[in-house]
Amino acid sequence: MASADSFGIADLLAGSGLIYVSVAVIVLVTFLTYFFQQSDQPKAEQKDEPKPSEEKPKKEPKEKKTPVVKPKPKGTHPLRANILKGHTGAITAVAFSPDGRYLVTAAEDRQLKIWHHNTLAEKSPTSIRINVPLDHVSAMEFSNDSHHLICGLASTCDILAYKISTALKKDEGKMFKEVHRFPTNHKSPMRSVNISTNSKVILTCSEETEATLWDIKGAELVTINTSQVRNNMAALSPDCTLLGIAAWTGDVKLWNVQYNKETGTFEKAVKVMNLGEHRSTVYGLSFNSDSSRIATTSKDGTWKLWKLDVRWNIGGDPKCILTVAFPEPEGSFNLIAFSPDSKVVAVTSKNTLFFYSIDGTLLDTVHDVHDGTDIVALSWAPDSSLVVTGGDTTARLWKNPAHKPSKK
Questions:
Q1: 161 near 178, Cβ under 8 Å?
Q2: Cα–Cα dist 167/153, whole Å
Q3: Nearest Cα to 386, choosing from 195, 125, 132, 176?
Q4: 236-267, pLDDT tens digit by residue?
Q5: What backbone phi and psi angles, to 5 degrees, belong to 121?
Q6: What is the SS3 string spanning the chain?
Q7: What are phi and psi of 39, to 5 degrees?
Q8: Which among 207, 222, 218 has a CA at the least distance from the CA of 139?
Q9: What is the largest CA-CA distance in the chain?
Q10: Which residues pair with 107 in a beta bridge?
Q11: Which of 126, 90, 83 is nearest to 111 (CA)?
Q12: Band of the pLDDT at 94, cuts 50, 70, 90?
């Protein structure tokens, strides 16, 4: 039989359990109420706090991008007279005709372009196109009477001669007519081609060690071996008596070209002088108009002027009368050409053109002559007013800074 004490304790425990359940229910209801209140908040309220990535882009400066600044075009050098365009291949040679009527440009596009001299100052100079069959011209020169253009071909190493008609009529394309072609003994493209002022001989020179004299019909007269590893170019003096070769060593060798006194035909070439003061490869040489001086350029960073009117036939030695050092700490001169009036020397170094007086004074300098390429060809107008350079796919005309137009 249960006692009264045990009965009271049981009732007390039962009441406590009910209290605990009630408290648990109240807590659960409170939590659920709070949860649903948070879930029922309007969505617009959640948008009141903008996300960092969604800040108003319109308030930023327009696309905060660094503007692309196009380089300003280079200023035109005051000596530049014109740019001759039209070739689609790299220029390889340029030449003015001695009578002043034409300028011819040759390029790897297998074309010759004949420009009329009296239109060279115009915005669109007049030119005639001549297609070279299956080859391109690597070197060329006009005959002294301007009646023939002698060309050296790059692939076949042939000599190609054009005759120039003086009768300018409707079909101007026929004014340059191929009249002769003959093979040579060269195996690499010709670096230079010359025809003597008496039109008796043609001189060809390639990168090999040989330079050859030919008669006007293509018969070999003599082949000269310099034994200097590689030839860079060769030239004939205007009086037809001297032949000079620029080669791999620092020596410039000169030969006397002798002719029969009665017939005027070639007889022999005799080595008579050696210009030996350069310390490295000689790149170029040029005779002045009366053949009394020769200018040379070298890898040693100098160009030199030599006196040739000495009695070399009895052992007299040529004299170096001027040495001009490259105007910058490093570099060397390449091409060189006397102006026809023998007052100015045009010299190149890669893509730069220098004008010097014959006493060595630097008259002017033109940098960046062509677009990203070296100057590969150089020629003077017969009146010494202009010099033309060849490089990239253009020929560019430059005024002689020392030229004074003749008064009419």
A1: yes
A2: 27
A3: 125
A4: 999 999 999 999 999 899 999 999 988 889 99
A5: -85, -10
A6: CCCHHHHHHHHHHHHHHHHHHHHHHHHHHHHHHHHHHHHCCCHHHHCCCCCHHHCCHHHCCHHHCCCCCCCCCCCCCCCEEEEECCCCCCEEEEEECCCCCEEEEEECCCEEEEEEHHHCCCCCCCEEEEECCCCCEEEEEECCCCCEEEEEECCCCCEEEEEECCCCCCCHHHHEEEEEEECCCCCCCEEEEEECCCCCEEEEEECCCEEEEEECCCCEEEEEECCCCCEEEEEECCCCCEEEEEECCCCEEEEEEEECCCCCCEEEEEEEEEECCCCCCEEEEEECCCCCEEEEEECCCEEEEEECCCCHHHCCCCEEEEEEECCCCCCCCCCEEECCCCCEEEEEECCEEEEEECCCCEEEEECCCCCCCCCCEEEECCCCCEEEEEECCEEEEEECCCCCCCCC
A7: -70, -30
A8: 207
A9: 173
A10: 91, 111
A11: 90
A12: very high
- Tens digits of residue pLDDT in 342-398: 999 999 999 999 999 999 999 999 999 999 899 999 999 999 999 999 999 999 999
Q: Each residue of 222-235: b (16+ CB within 10 Å) or e?
A: bebebebeebbbbb
The C-alpha atoms of residue 136 and residue 106 are separated, in whole angstroms, by 8
**Can you read off the two tokens belonging to residue 38?**
């948070």
From residue 91, alpha-carbon distances to 55, 119, 134, 392 in Å are 60, 20, 17, 6
**Residue 220 CB coordination number (10 Å):** 12
Of 301, 241, 242, nearest in space to 275 by CA: 242
Cβ atoms of residues 95 and 125 within 8 Å? no
Q: With the C-alpha atoms ordered 55, 61, 66, 70, is the resulting torsion angle positive or negative?
A: positive
Spatial CB neighbours of 178, under 8 Å, sequence gap ≥ 6: 160, 161, 162
Pairing of strands 111-116, 102-107: antiparallel
Q: How far apart are CA 106 and CA 393, in angstroms?
A: 10
What is the pTM (predicted TM-score) of this model?
0.79
Structure tokens that stand for 205 in this block? 């020179």
CB 406 within 8 A of CB 363: no
